[in-house]
## 1
Amino acid sequence: MRTIDWVSDADGPAIEIVDQTALPDTTRMLRLRTTAEVVDAIARLAVRGAPALGVAGALGVALAAARDAARAVARDAARAGDAGTAGDGGGAEERLAADVEALRGARPTAVNLARGVDRAAARIPAGPAAVLAEALALRDEEIASSAAMAARGADLVTELVGPAARLLTHCNTGGLATVTGGTALAVVTELHRRGALAGVIASETRPLLQGARLTAWELREAKVPFRVAVDGAGPFLMARGEVDAVILGADRICANGDVVNKVGSYAHALGAARAGIPFLVVAPESTVDDATATGADVPIEDRAAGEVLGFAGHRTTPDGAEAANPAFDVTPHDLVTAIVTDRRVIRPTAR
């Protein structure tokens, strides 16, 4: 199943996504028909994961371009005297530019979103069909990228820790975060397929529980044996010898090899370094950002206090409590054993 795709029905074109906020209780598909709906879906994490955000951004531009083309047709029909059709193309370029900026800024930390938007927007002068073709090309590239990362990453894990790997992963890096397959979780499922996986621990990923809700759901669907642990247990489980390697994804990889990923990743990297086990990052080449020198240069998204001060709609902290809620953290490159992309293996400490 593709977790994000382009569809067209009687009501016109739309972006169809799996609503990640409804999982694991309900598998609900959403059809997004306006730029505002796409921006909202990104902001509230109905669609998330760096590669998926890139595809969502590109498809969002295609949606906006298709809308303005339809308005132009309606306007021309009205000018030709078709009384049954109304339309107004005034300010079309301004509207489209505003939509592009809204999509680009929906989440600032993941580089894929801005890149996907910019790639599709560059085709606007060629018309809406060209914009859609570019967005669909990006979608197909992400599908192929997942397969390449799965194979290369599985080979590397077996090389580093042997044929019965016990892994710990953080946040969600499966098909929900891409289109199909995934990044780090694609490596996990490929090892399982090869009979080279002894087990996987999914850290719950506070405060929104992407590990407990989404990764656990995907592992169950793939019939991969797993356990869920609270985030803070990861380093101790490594110290106790229950983990052979940490494997996770990235929202941005800086030129020096610093890795920006879901908050909690840095703690797992420190635990892995102390335990002397590999810390592996799996992400497509599109996540490598050579224009950003180090993690210190990346804008880190701070999310709403309510995500930390309460749970499931109920406040769990006393009145007057304030929150610190960075959505991401930065793992310095010297703690990263290797970065696996769809094209290569990067060893930051060897640079």
## 2
Amino acid sequence: MDTITVTASRTYDVLVGRGLLVKAGELTAPLVKGRHCVIISDDNVFPLYGETVQKSMEDAGFISDTFLFQAGEASKNTNTLLNFLSFMAEHEMTRQDVVIALGGGVTGDMGGLGAALFLRGIACIQIPTSLLAMVDSSVGGKTAIDLPAGKNMVGTFTQPHLVLCDIDTLKTLPDAVYAEGMAEIIKYGMLGSRALLDILDSEAADEQIKHIVTECVSMKRDIVAQDEQDLGERQILNFGHTIGHAIERCSNYGIFHGEGVAMGMGIMTRACVKLNLCPPECEEILTRLLRKYHLPDDTELSTEQLMQAARADKKRRGEAITLVMPVEVGKCVLHRTEFSALEEILQLGSAAL
């Protein structure tokens, strides 16, 4: 088992290994004073792992209740959040008790935000069961829900008390869900690790998944330590996200988040090559890896559609936006520019040109 310690407004550990679900109770117990937990999960994940986690919590002396919601990004809304908060109130949760978020990124967001809001804040343990949640969304304290106007527009920066990444849960992921996690891993490689890109390009990548998860979490740990509130350096993690979120919104969240990120990275990298901001090798490696892991690198949506959707991006500051641009393989930089410049990026980044 690997342990990565995140130092932020709350210091906590991210554990990466196998067989961690059965240890959830004993690992949680020393971190909270209360002995009542609510397990929040969706109707896909809970039938697979809910009983194991529930038993572990009860064996450690916890009384457990379960809040389930329909799987999918469409559930990450104000209605689900209010229902979750009401559920905790009805079950008399106190400030000494704990939320257990068991599932992928949507569950992590819902559980983390609900815990942050209820009674002005109770403990939350993140147990990510998707690859994307393990390497990205469960770490760093971002919690949010979507509004009709855009993705992740209501949320907080609230760090969890513990993150348990049980690699065994990845074996039940559908291929498309596993692939979207690979999009975020490719992102980390493009941001700061050519060595990680080399592993992904090899035939042994799946055999090294525990090492890959640990490397990604370690990279995010270092960035969060510098900029917890996402005001500067942490924005580098948004490579592919500005365009990707616009694509997600235009699709009414009918695609996976990782697919949107993959398309966003592809469009941005092609544009940067055409603008002579990065060598063609960046595009070649990125495209090869996206195709290897069955991820898209472009969209059929028009520039006009994407520009309209991107105006709702929470990273926009007035008429300026910070874009993440590759400059070499394994290195990206932040580039603050006028929002209107995004239109040229979208046009140049189209694979049809």
## 3
Amino acid sequence: MPRKTAPLGLAVDPVAPEPLHKQIGAQIRAAILERRLAPGLRLPSSRTLAAELGCARGTILAALDQLVAEGYLVAQAGSGLSVAANLPDEMLVPPRSGERRAAAAATVPPVLSHRTQAALAAQKIPEPLDDSPVAFPTGQPDRTAFPFALWAKLLEQEWRKPSWQVAGALHPFGHAGLRDAIAAYLGMARGFSCQGSAVVVTSGMRQSLSLFARLVLDAGQQAWIEEPGFIGTREAMAAAEVEAVHVPVDAQGFSVEAALKLAPQARLAVVAPSHQFPLGTVLGLQRRLALLSWAERTKSWIAEDDFDGEYRYAGRPLAPLRALDRSGRVAYLGSFSKLLFPALRLSYVVLPASLAPAAEKIMTGTAARASLLGQGALARFIADGHLAAHLRRTRLLYAGRQAALIRLGQLRLKGLLELAPDPGGMHLVARPVPALARGFDDVAVAAEAAVRGVAVAPLSACYGGRSKKHGLLLGYAGTPEADMASALAILRNVLKDR
């Protein structure tokens, strides 16, 4: 059907998806804003417009009534409708075309808050969102080893007829049964006692760290973090508006002496003493006691990240800092996502008992809470002994996979990368041989390997300062031994092609 044009330059398309009254209203509005219809100009009557456009008068009235409501048109006694005379001059400018407007928006960077800018700066490399099964991802457990059939039964038991408390408003710290189960498990497995009332269930280590930092530090205060270290620690400090001071880790781990030289006014230390990420260093007893002494003496705080302390394959692990803490200055952080399966998204922080009442009041109205869906099932999973059994099975599985990775790596990566065994953890650090060390670009290698279907992480991304060391992180926990040889062959080709 051909378009019909009215004296005002209006045109309607009866077959367009947009209703006729909206087409008419949009064109009159644009004509006013572009000054094609001057302020005070009288419009033709609704009957005239309806006749010219070949549509019902009710359609015209619907368009005009909307423009009156928006203030573009005004009704005058005996004179019909006219363009409003009091529209702001700055609004009466021709708008850009859609194409020009999109191009202009693309060239103007958005104005972001300082907090968001700091968080973006902390993310040196983006985390891949494509979770396809590939070899050597870090921090990934073996999902096929998890008893999902049992998990489904526990979920069904929890939600078939949930209790009044579970189905109601969730406590800001999380499911009470899970918090008690975590406290009991830590007393048995990690050797320190705590109460469920001090356990906060979170959606990840970043939330745990950010929550604790906000509790004990003001914006702008300093916190010591390990260099190299977990990228999420930098992100959590940025989210909490805390200045992160990167303290280099040596062969013995984190050093209070070195930290004091860099930032003597810091009042928080974030450390992973049981198995440092990514280097795997275990903090010795003397340095643990020195760190605890500093916290006690200066009334400072320690966040102990024990992300994979359950996986120890040789020797007996030292007691956590929390077990040695006599002044209530240590918060203990753990994660179930790395032990069970990533989609669970459940971690926890055991607060110093003195902080729990204040944290509860603050979190009641402000903090985001972890999903409740799996918390009850996880409480049953722990209390019934399934977690301990799962850890025993996977501890043996991962020890075998680490040995296989070292054996195959020595064959496939000979002359390129060197792998050394680690008494614990879920990944190994592969360093370039001396002949390749100069100019070795681990970020570029990781990017090319990802294109070819192998996931390795660059060691340099774990450094926040200018001085970086290069290498690759190869996660073995989630990689079946049968897939390792072919993946290492691909990695070798990537390295030789550079």
